[in-house]
């Protein structure tokens, strides 16, 4: 009977190479995951900022809508201009003003502002996200009261 001999030094060398390859794959997956999370988080922060600026711009424009004593809502051309000016004072380079319309929404004086925000583009390609904000005129509150 012949004995089989197993040489362990060869298997240890291959295990070292295998662990290095697994380490490289795991590190790459971890880096992609972290970059994806950063892209998602920065895009969400930009969206929240765009919503806040658009909302405040819509409320600023809505304050220019006049409600006559008989309850008739009178639209002035100054509302969209005020909303656009307020947005330009508050916005960052990744925010873009699209449109502002002021008038009556569901029987109430209001102003609607449409803006776009650019995604972060760290892992995924950059794209534009459209946000619409609606600001109503509070009863009894006018620009002169502030």
Structural features:
146 residues; alpha+beta; three-stranded antiparallel β-sheet; two-stranded antiparallel sheet; rod-shaped
Unreliable runs: none
Category from helices, strands and their pairing:
alpha+beta
Tell me the helix content: 40-55%
Query: What is the H/E string?
Result: HEEHEEE
- Count of individual beta strands: 5
Cα gyration radius (Å): 29 Å
Give a description of the structure.
The chain has 146 residues and is an alpha+beta fold. 47% of the residues lie in helices and 24% in strands. The strands form two sheets. A three-stranded antiparallel beta sheet has the order 3-4-5, with helices on one face. It is rod-shaped, with a radius of gyration of 29 Å.
Secondary structure topology:
Layout: H1 8-62, E1 66-67, E2 73-74, H2 78-90, E3 95-105, E4 108-118, E5 128-136
Antiparallel strand pairs: 1-2, 3-4, 4-5
Helix pairs in contact: 1-2
Produce a short descriptive summary.
With 146 residues, the chain is α+β, with helices and mostly antiparallel strands. It is 47% helix and 24% strand.
């Amino acid at each position: 009977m012949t004995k089989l001999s197993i040489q362990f030094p060869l298997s240890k060398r291959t295990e070292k190479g295998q662990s290095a390859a697994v380490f490289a794959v795991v590190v790459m997956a971890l880096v992609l995951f972290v970059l994806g999370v950063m892209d998602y988080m920065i895009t969400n922060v930009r969206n929240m900022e765009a919503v806040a600026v658009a909302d405040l711009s819509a409320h600023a424009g809505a304050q220019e809508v006049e409600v006559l004593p008989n309850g008739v809502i009178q639209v002035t051309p100054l509302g969209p201009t005020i909303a656009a000016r307020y947005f330009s004072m508050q916005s960052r380079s990744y925010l873009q003003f699209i449109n502002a319309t002021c008038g009556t929404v569901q029987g109430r004086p209001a102003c609607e502002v449409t803006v776009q925000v650019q995604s972060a583009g760290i892992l995924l390609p950059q794209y534009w996200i459209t946000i619409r904000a609606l600001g109503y005129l509070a009863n009894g509150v006018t620009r002169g009261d502030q």
